[in-house]
Inverse folding.
């Protein structure tokens, strides 16, 4: 089976090197906490006000302020800042935490459309940081699409059933 | 629903502060790359040679060298070192990547037993680092148990079906 990150690169058109160029950039210290909170606020303002009802409804049961906090805390941590996300919620576990949502390619593109707009409307993000962030987001969005597709496949793989059946321990 | 990290803390007995005390310790620079590769090698040597067949068989279809590399690259990255794991495999996505395996409480305890032994048999790990690593491992093991249980629940939640049904877009 093709690995998650290979699918993500193929579908997003972003190589893994470009996606994780953020790790050689220290964007938290370049941009600062306030920029990330503003970016996530701009992003979710657009999402919760989206004309496309099918996309807006994905977030219908989620609290907007919580969504903003979850996102900027994750971004701050992932971009080299303090580990705000893990201190409050533990491991990011990106695929599992997106499991309740229908993460299709169409949803990924809509998410990326809003993020592109949010990046453009957030002041103090230089062009180089913007490119690095967008590559990270584009790759990650399709990584999640791949993760959701894998989940659906896993439910019916004979290999998994066979592995479970061969366990001799009843409590296992 | 109780959050993943609350379940992990309750079941493991490790608070989230203790679990992520690693983030204030910079263990990569304290211990160095070689210590992490040795730790993971010691760990998987024990796992692949476990007397308990039910536990050993979980890893039966996985390549031992790959398992060692995946683990030490993740640990190096998570403990403040270079992002070796993401550069090769993308996001850790811990729960999703453990989805093919039966991550029960019994398996978590057996995993932790071997890791405790591996830590003791790896030289140059001071007691304070050992405690921090073991708290991280214990909390994470039960975080994964909680993640797997959530997966099983999610398959049958009416909320999810309802959300899928209400989508008006056929391609969605």
């Amino acid at each position: 089976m093709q690995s998650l990150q290979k699918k993500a690169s193929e579908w997003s058109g972003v190589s893994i090197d470009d996606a994780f160029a953020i790790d050689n950039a220290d964007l938290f210290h370049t941009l600062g906490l306030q920029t990330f909170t503003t970016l996530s606020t701009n992003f979710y303002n657009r999402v919760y006000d989206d004309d496309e009802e099918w996309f807006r409804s994905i977030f219908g049961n989620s609290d907007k302020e919580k969504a903003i906090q979850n996102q900027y805390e994750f971004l701050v941590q992932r971009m080299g800042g303090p580990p705000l996300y893990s201190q409050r919620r533990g491991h990011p576990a990106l695929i599992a935490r997106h499991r309740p949502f229908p993460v299709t390619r169409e949803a990924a593109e809509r998410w990326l459309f809003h993020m592109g707009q949010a990046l453009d409307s957030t002041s103090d993000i230089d062009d180089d940081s913007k490119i690095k962030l967008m590559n990270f987001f584009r790759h990650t969005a399709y990584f999640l699409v791949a993760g959701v597709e894998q989940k659906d496949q896993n439910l019916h793989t004979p290999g998994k059933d066979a592995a479970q059946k061969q366990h001799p321990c009843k409590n296992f």
About this structure: Chain A is about 65% helix and 0% strand. The first helix of chain A runs from residue 4 to 12. Chain A touches chain B through 51 residues (CB under 8 Å).
